[in-house]
Amino acid sequence: MFTVIAFDISDDRIRYRVVKALKKYAVRVQKSVFEAPHLPQNHLRRLQRQIERLIDPRTDRVRYYFLCAACKPRIEHLGRGEVTEYEEFRVI
Fold first, then answer.
1. Inside any domain, residue 25
2. How many structural domains comprise the chain?
3. Please, what's the largest Cα pairwise distance for the chain?
4. Which residue range is the domain that position 59 belongs to?
5. Which end of the chain has fewer CB within 10 Å, C or N?
Protein backbone atom coordinates (compact mmCIF):
# COMPACT_ATOMS: atom_id res chain seq x y z
CA MET A 1 0.00 0.00 0.00
CA PHE A 2 1.30 3.45 -0.94
CA THR A 3 0.77 5.88 1.94
CA VAL A 4 0.86 9.68 1.80
CA ILE A 5 1.16 11.45 5.15
CA ALA A 6 0.46 15.17 5.39
CA PHE A 7 0.53 17.34 8.48
CA ASP A 8 -0.10 20.84 9.78
CA ILE A 9 1.56 21.35 13.16
CA SER A 10 1.75 24.76 14.81
CA ASP A 11 4.56 24.23 17.34
CA ASP A 12 8.10 24.12 15.87
CA ARG A 13 9.41 21.71 18.50
CA ILE A 14 6.57 19.23 18.00
CA ARG A 15 6.81 19.57 14.21
CA TYR A 16 10.53 18.72 14.38
CA ARG A 17 9.78 15.59 16.43
CA VAL A 18 7.03 14.48 14.04
CA VAL A 19 9.34 14.97 11.04
CA LYS A 20 12.05 12.97 12.81
CA ALA A 21 9.58 10.11 13.39
CA LEU A 22 8.31 10.22 9.80
CA LYS A 23 11.82 10.11 8.32
CA LYS A 24 12.26 6.62 9.81
CA TYR A 25 9.39 5.31 7.66
CA ALA A 26 8.89 7.63 4.71
CA VAL A 27 10.44 10.05 2.22
CA ARG A 28 9.83 13.77 2.52
CA VAL A 29 8.46 15.11 -0.76
CA GLN A 30 7.34 18.54 0.46
CA LYS A 31 7.76 20.46 3.71
CA SER A 32 4.73 18.82 5.33
CA VAL A 33 4.15 15.81 3.06
CA PHE A 34 5.78 12.38 3.18
CA GLU A 35 5.38 9.32 0.95
CA ALA A 36 5.81 5.74 2.15
CA PRO A 37 5.66 3.39 -0.85
CA HIS A 38 5.56 0.10 1.09
CA LEU A 39 4.72 0.72 4.71
CA PRO A 40 3.83 -2.52 6.50
CA GLN A 41 0.70 -2.35 8.66
CA ASN A 42 2.60 -2.91 11.92
CA HIS A 43 5.01 -0.05 11.12
CA LEU A 44 2.11 2.21 10.21
CA ARG A 45 0.39 1.53 13.53
CA ARG A 46 3.65 2.14 15.42
CA LEU A 47 4.16 5.43 13.58
CA GLN A 48 0.56 6.52 14.20
CA ARG A 49 0.85 5.82 17.94
CA GLN A 50 4.14 7.72 18.09
CA ILE A 51 2.70 10.75 16.31
CA GLU A 52 -0.48 10.61 18.37
CA ARG A 53 1.62 10.96 21.54
CA LEU A 54 3.46 13.98 20.11
CA ILE A 55 0.74 16.21 18.67
CA ASP A 56 -1.97 18.31 20.25
CA PRO A 57 -5.19 17.27 18.46
CA ARG A 58 -6.82 20.60 19.34
CA THR A 59 -4.35 22.57 17.20
CA ASP A 60 -2.50 20.04 15.01
CA ARG A 61 -3.59 17.84 12.13
CA VAL A 62 -2.08 14.71 10.57
CA ARG A 63 -3.69 12.89 7.64
CA TYR A 64 -2.93 9.51 6.15
CA TYR A 65 -3.95 8.80 2.56
CA PHE A 66 -3.82 5.19 1.37
CA LEU A 67 -3.46 4.47 -2.34
CA CYS A 68 -3.84 1.03 -3.84
CA ALA A 69 -1.40 -0.34 -6.41
CA ALA A 70 -3.81 0.49 -9.23
CA CYS A 71 -3.98 4.14 -8.11
CA LYS A 72 -0.24 4.78 -7.96
CA PRO A 73 0.24 5.11 -11.76
CA ARG A 74 -2.47 7.79 -11.74
CA ILE A 75 -0.48 10.11 -9.45
CA GLU A 76 0.25 13.35 -11.28
CA HIS A 77 2.88 15.90 -10.36
CA LEU A 78 4.49 19.01 -11.76
CA GLY A 79 7.96 20.31 -11.08
CA ARG A 80 10.93 18.62 -9.49
CA GLY A 81 10.88 15.13 -8.13
CA GLU A 82 9.23 11.84 -8.93
CA VAL A 83 6.75 9.60 -7.18
CA THR A 84 8.65 7.78 -4.45
CA GLU A 85 9.62 4.23 -5.28
CA TYR A 86 10.44 1.53 -2.81
CA GLU A 87 13.37 2.34 -0.58
CA GLU A 88 14.66 0.33 2.34
CA PHE A 89 13.98 1.96 5.69
CA ARG A 90 15.47 0.89 8.98
CA VAL A 91 13.02 0.98 11.83
CA ILE A 92 14.76 1.78 15.07
1. yes
2. 1
3. 37
4. 2-74
5. C
